[in-house]
Amino acid sequence: MRISTVMRVLYLFALWGSSLAAAFCESDAGVRQCLPRRSFTLHQASIAPPLDPDPPSPFKNVMKRLLPRGGGQQAAVVVAPPALPTAPKEESRQNASFLQRHPFLSAVSITTINAFLADLLTQLVFEKSGWNKARSALFCAFGFLYQGCAQYAIVNGGWEKLFPGTKPRNVIAKICGMNLISDPLLFMPTFYIFKEFLQVGTLSWGMVKAALLAYQSNALMDWRNSWMVWFPGHAVTYGVMPTHKRIPWMAFLSFFYMCVLSLTRGG
Predict the structure, then answer these.
(1) pLDDT tens-digit map of 143-170
(2) Residue 197 in contact with residue 215, Cβ under 8 Å?
């Protein structure tokens, strides 16, 4: 009687222990300890989704799309480091021409040399006279101060800001502004004042008045000669040429105009 009772108690303890072991083995920690490696893999696959040792990330998702699918050994993808940012302005500046890097300096240099050579050619070839150094100095100063400095500000600053771009209406407005306003009111009076100052040698209001009176008597012929050259010339200046090439183009064209000006008004 006692033996059967003890056997029953032991049997109950065995059932209770087996139930605890089964509950423990069904947990993740218990699976790792109670079952072998192969049975753990099968058991875990049956009770829960497989564990991903590497959690997903946006970078890994992109790499999975880039890697080839299918059997065989997958090719390794080497991701190059991002290129260092470059300075496009500095690179373009290094590759630019001298006119683009130094537009004002090149404009002043070209116009000064151009005015000097135009007057020298007129004196030695067309007039066949000796070299008048004072007259050449006048044209050099005029080429530097007005055609270089002042005209650079007028062409690329004043009229371009008022009528920007290369639209036909703006180009026509700039051509008319140069020929009907800038040249008659600025270019011609400045040239006559330079010429009178060279002849008189002193700067005074009487000298300026005499220069303007001389300009008044020759205005119609001077305007005609100027318009014959600069109406078509400024069509190229504002319609074709970029900003840094406008003054060099005008200097090239004005070489012939300065020969005319030196021949008619240089004496």
Answers:
(1) 898 888 998 899 988 899 899 888 999 9
(2) no
Q: Is the pTM of this model over 0.70?
A: no
pLDDT tens digit string along 166-179?
899 999 999 999 99
